[in-house]
TrEMBL record:
EC number annotated for this UniProt entry: 2.7.11.26
GO BP: cell differentiation; insulin receptor signaling pathway; negative regulation of canonical Wnt signaling pathway; negative regulation of TOR signaling; positive regulation of proteasomal ubiquitin-dependent protein catabolic process; regulation of microtubule cytoskeleton organization; regulation of neuron projection development
Protein name stated in the entry: [tau protein] kinase
GO MF term set: ATP binding; tau-protein kinase activity
Start and end residues of each stretch annotated as Disordered: 16-45
Recorded family membership: Belongs to the protein kinase superfamily. CMGC Ser/Thr protein kinase family. GSK-3 subfamily.
Native organism: Oncorhynchus kisutch (Coho salmon)
Catalytic activity: L-threonyl-[tau protein] + ATP = O-phospho-L-threonyl-[tau protein] + ADP + H(+); L-seryl-[tau protein] + ATP = O-phospho-L-seryl-[tau protein] + ADP + H(+)
List of residues binding ATP: 132
One GO CC term, this protein: cytosol
Keywords: ATP-binding, Kinase, Nucleotide-binding, Serine/threonine-protein kinase, Transferase
UniProt domain Protein kinase: residue ranges: 102-386
Amino acid sequence: EARVSVGQIQVGSALSHIDMSGSGRPRTSSFAEPPGAPGAVSAAAGSSVTGGISAGKSGASQATGSSSTGFGNLKLARDSGKVTTVVATPGQGPDRPQEVSYTDIKVIGNGSFGVVYQARLIDSQEMVAIKKVLQDKRFKNRELQIMRKLDHCNIVRLRYFFYSSGEKKDEVYLNLVLDFVPETVYRVARHFNKAKTTIPIIYVKVYMYQLFRSLAYIHSQGVCHRDIKPQNLLVDPETAILKLCDFGSAKQLVRGEPNVSYICSRYYRAPELIFGATDYTSNIDIWSAGCVLAELLLGQPIFPGDSGVDQLVEIIKVLGTPTREQIREMNPNYTEFKFPQIKAHPWTKVFKPRTPPEAISLCSRLLEYTPVTRLSPLEACAHAFFEELRQPTARLPSGRELPLLFNFSPVELSIQPQLNSTLIPPHARAQTSPASHGMYNTSYPTNAYYMFRSCLLDDYIFTRLG
């Protein structure tokens, strides 16, 4: 409450001294901003890295050395050819510990959360990422608990987890063995930005569609990610498959139970969080996704605030001053309304002239002050902006087929069944095995295909639609 009251004073004074009458784009930072800049943290530092982590001191056979991070990454780099064997528990299914061996270990990122490594599994020769974090013995690790219950093709898979001892007495580290995915949306977009060109709109559609699918799934499980940003969206540049990663800030939201409002990376932070709301919903993820979409279209963040308060200023420059009712919807406990009245900037003037109208329309439905009026993830998937993806002739710029986008599970089809006939185009209802597309990742459970086939039968769909 103290933070909120302070914020009210700061917000009021900040807005009263800032000229928001200009019709041009607010000053922003580009995708090419330095890794230390707010909202542009490198993928590695966000633990999203290129996918995974490997343990620094994973068992007695793993040598570690001293380093500034305390994870022994300098020694690890020298021992990258060493084979490490640990006893690990599968990420999904029964707790049946088994020996897992990996090699070719190298550090690919570190930050306040810990260290991320890349490694190769000996048995399958597959690359994995290993995220190593200090474990507080007093509490269960929330990220581990959440990842163990998630199973979706657009969410990075937890393959195994194991614990390792640290250099200090009683120091224990949790190691999450994850899918390795080579790139992030942040770095892909930065590549195009450096080339002074815009990312092809088909990529924007394919990436955002898969992000919304992942959000629909986790929200149906009661999980809010709370840190959606380009750095946490892993992508395979060849197949365009996207996987949501880094559930370090995620939480199972329970109505009536308070949550911290100081969450989510600043550029992507929903306005209700800035207003200090503690009873927010998963709609904060929708706002963040809208910010990601706008950033891909603009080539730069849409709301590049220098501070928490300045973040609200940037939002008001585009959306205008929120009404009293909108503020109440964001945080009923916020009672001061000392805001200059700023008119909303037309969405068509926010984006470049050739931006598809459907893209602008979708952005406007995601970036709304009132949380409950934002589109749901599946409503976003059904939006006209993604209509091209539902055409049987749609292809990536390379000529390659799109990744599987319509292999909805029964869980997904039960979320908003009235949308199913829109979400699954006629040609996709007869799709064959994912393997026949030659580009679907093996992390999807094999029995999911049989679920997939049954749930795509016309009779099933139309029965569900009633």
